[in-house]
Protein: PqqD family protein
Amino acid sequence: MLDSYRQAPPHREPATDGPARPAPADGRAEAPPPRPDDLDEVRIGPGVHNADLDDEIVLLHPADGSYFALNETGAYLWRQLGTAAVPRGAAVRRAAAAVTDRWLVEASEAERDLHELLDELLRRGLVVLAPQPA
Structure:
């Protein structure tokens, strides 16, 4: 998803700081718990330009002229944002469902990776969050 994720994603060790949750009866991994910012609306940052290159999207930050490449998975999430504000949680869940169906990845892993991508895009100023009242 991130430009550095073109290689194999890093191996994740299972958490050991608490009791393990039982797996759902259908055998699928449990979705991660909601995040406090799931209702915040995420928007493409002002002035950010993007270009489709086959299955990827390249983003141009207007302030510093830096480029950021999204692979096919990240590009799918970017397209979910479109031009309208979308609740962060809804955008991630829709993209994660598509990723899960297409690449046979566990939903929890897809959601975690997509949240990491949004966090990186926020850090770089390519998207902005509009907090919503709880």
Q: What stands out?
A: The CA atoms of residues 39 and 87 lie 5 Å apart. The first strand starts at residue 41 and ends at 44. Residues 38-128 form a domain with the Outer Surface Protein A; domain 3 fold (CATH 3.90.930.60). The beta strands are 41-44, 49-53, 56-60, 67-70, 86-87, 127-130.
